[in-house]
Amino acid sequence: MAEQVSAKRVVGLAVPALGVLAAEPLYVLVDTAVVGHLGALPLAGLALGGVLFTQVASQLTFLSYGTTARAARLFGAGRRADAVQEGVQATWLALLAGVLAVLVGQALAWPAARVLGGDEVAAQAVAWLRIAVLGAPFVLVTMAGNGWMRGVEDTVRPLRYVLLGNGVSAILCPVLVYWAGWGLEGSAVANVVAQVISAGLFFRALKVEGVPLKPQPTLMRAQLGLGRDLVLRGLAFQACFISAASVAARTSVAAVGAHQIVLQLWTFLALVLDSLAIAAQAIVGQALGAGRPEEAKRFAWQITGYGLVFGVVLGVVFAALAGVIPGLFTSDAAVLGEVPHAWWFFVALQPVAGVVFALDGVLLGAGDARFLRTATLLSAALGFLPLIWLSSAFGWGLLGIWSGLSAFMVLRLVTILLRTRSGRWAQVGAVW
């Protein structure tokens, strides 16, 4: 039997990855706190605009997760230059997709916001979104850069790059929103500044590697093949979260503001837990690339235990802080009154999320994207979406929305545990 992967190696990969993963949602939490003190309406506009903007990254997760899986296998097989070349091609795809996202975002900002919310909230969302979407190419380049660097177990430089960009922007945001008097639009400008700084550093990292920087259509097509399944998986996530935002927006301004606060905390903790998944992707991909499937299988259960413990700890901490944290984001009494309707679902789901996200990393590292696609689509169709739209029909509000998220997560937990137990995902080789 293969030896257990050392905890030191897991922590060495997970902690810097945690910094990268947490930096963006932590900045969004700062952004939410800054805008939240402008009032309930700007906060609702940020919530709706933010949901629309996140479609850019959410639909193209293969630029990071797929690139990590492919690069890790090549790195495990002793082919570092080929692993970095995966990053070059992912960066080209990021630029192409980012330019398209800017064009589509400008054209569809108003109609999309109007469908999801009333005129008043939609107007605020569009004012923010038309500026924020200009950063789309840089967001995607950063995702691609994180992907190949994780694959070669270089997680420290991405942390520096992302912290520098978001650190500058976190200082700039309140200056532009309050001192310059730009309001919600100042928040969007600060976002774009962060994205430009980080992407520039990832460009530089590729250049100093000394590999050819020309596009290679064959490799790009292979990445898109894996990307297809991850895009469909991402569409399932976003269909759920867009529907949830729409139902919250049509419930009341206070409900959508409360949903924004709890959802951003959920996103933040999901990415905290996902740091284990990043370590799992790199370790599993390298083990399979080097022809060691038993090591990969053993590590899958090892990371499951880590995820469960991590999730329990987070649940306990946020249960204890239930009376403190929401007030950091808004002083609006109506918004604060709605928060408890989502808060306790958010707390109870942390242990489930710890296991699900850890094993997501195992299967992504193995390139098992087809299974993850199917499991996510079924969980969304049978769990999340029915409860969200019943909530809309019967006026259940945030209770119905977060019941849907709970059903979604439990279904994902069951399917991913069964798949991990089967062992069919552990296929060896530098490529697949």
Could you characterize what this model shows?
The chain is mostly helical and 432 residues long. It has one domain. Helices cover 84% and strands 0% of the residues. The chain is built from 17 helices and no strands. α3 packs parallel to α10, α10 packs antiparallel against α11 and α11 packs antiparallel against α15. The two termini are 25 Å apart. The mean pLDDT is 86.
Please give a handful of descriptors for the protein shown.
globular, mainly alpha, 432 residues
Detail the topology: elements first, then pairings.
Elements: H1 7-36, H2 40-58, H3 65-76, H4 80-116, H5 119-132, H6 136-151, H7 156-179, H8 184-209, H9 217-251, H10 253-289, H11 293-320, H12 326-329, H13 333-338, H14 340-348, H15 350-365, H16 369-394, H17 397-422
Helix pairs in contact: 1-7, 1-10, 2-4, 2-5, 2-9, 2-10, 3-4, 3-6, 3-10, 4-5, 4-6, 4-9, 5-8, 6-8, 7-8, 9-10, 9-16, 9-17, 10-11, 10-15, 11-14, 11-15, 14-17, 15-17, 16-17
